[in-house]
Amino acid sequence: MAKKSKTKQLISIVGTRAFPDEFSGTSGIETIISEAVPRLLAMDNKLHFKIYVRSPYQKIQLLSKNIKLVKVPTLTGKVLEPIAYVFLSAILVLFDNSKVVWIHGTGMSIFSFLFRLRGKKVVLQIHGLDWQRDKWNWIEKKAFSILSTFAIQHIDKLVVVSEKLAIDIKGLCKKKAIVVRPGLPKLENTSQIDKKIDGPFLLYLGRISPEKNIHLLIDSFEDLQRLTKRYQLIIAGSNSISESYINRLKEKSMKNKNIVWFGHANRQQKGWLHRNASLTLSFSNLEGLSMSLLESISIGKYSLVDKTTVDASIASLPNIFYMESRNPKLLGQQLYRILKNVQQNPKISYTGQEKALLKHYCSWEKMSNQLYKLLTA
Fold first, then answer.
1. CATH of domain 201-352
2. 220 Cβ partners below 8 Å, 6+ apart?
3. pLDDT digits (tens, 9 = 90+) for 285-295
4. How far apart are CA 86 and CA 83, in angstroms?
5. Of residues 127 and 39, which shows the higher confidence score?
């Protein structure tokens, strides 16, 4: 472990919606920060964190002498909300007394050179290629890409959550990134939940946004139903930016009584859903490292995902299946074949080698040690 700080060291965190991660609209960013900050404080009580959150999402008042929450007011809308947050929080960080700025996501990185002019160390952690998200139009994507590529050159340390992201960033920006993988989430073991679900089900759990390809998931499930009516599809999550996309999806699926819109799942509900799902689905082709996949892996359950979103370190696990096509009919057929096998063995037991692999690559302690060195060195 790195040497502990001798004097108070303030670190500003920007890019998160709220802290901790128990709220509607949470993502991998919030989970990683919620897991990292308490561990970093346990390692060094001289550390202090000022976390800039978005006011609409921060519902609880945190009481801690080492953690201060700054609620940043935002505007409404898929574009206006992140832009307002980025600009306002950047101004606040620029003039606070922190020595280190820990940025999550590429949006805030456009101010990196200003932070450095103020004598602040900048650590940027990238969880995905934000400028490729479907919520942006072509002009917005291009502008975001150019600004982000420029900004990445003006930071002190670049951190990514998967090996694939490191390769992508190296190709796009010619900048070497340090891979700091998250640990395996610990799911709560709840015997029942307050929502009724009948029979076996497939599960999507995550944010509802266009790049998650929920429309493809629904189409593939309806093709599966031509082969078997045994399963329900549970879609658990919320849309944190705009209701228009989720409303279109609900209208698309309203005649299918086997498609259940669960809404936001809290910790207890999330644990129950993962433990009882026959198969977890993630058809997104824009993920750094899916938390839903890691949750499923943590208890030996099965997942069907896009291969491009899985880190090489865990790609060989026997309970991860990969999409063979993006054609709904072919995906429906693949789902049918997978589910026939899963019925025989609903949950796997990892071998000693597989357990060692997960312990080595997916450890919150290892992640926190890496971050401590990056933030305090």
1. 3.40.50.2000
2. 283, 328, 331, 332, 335
3. 777 778 899 99
4. 5
5. 39
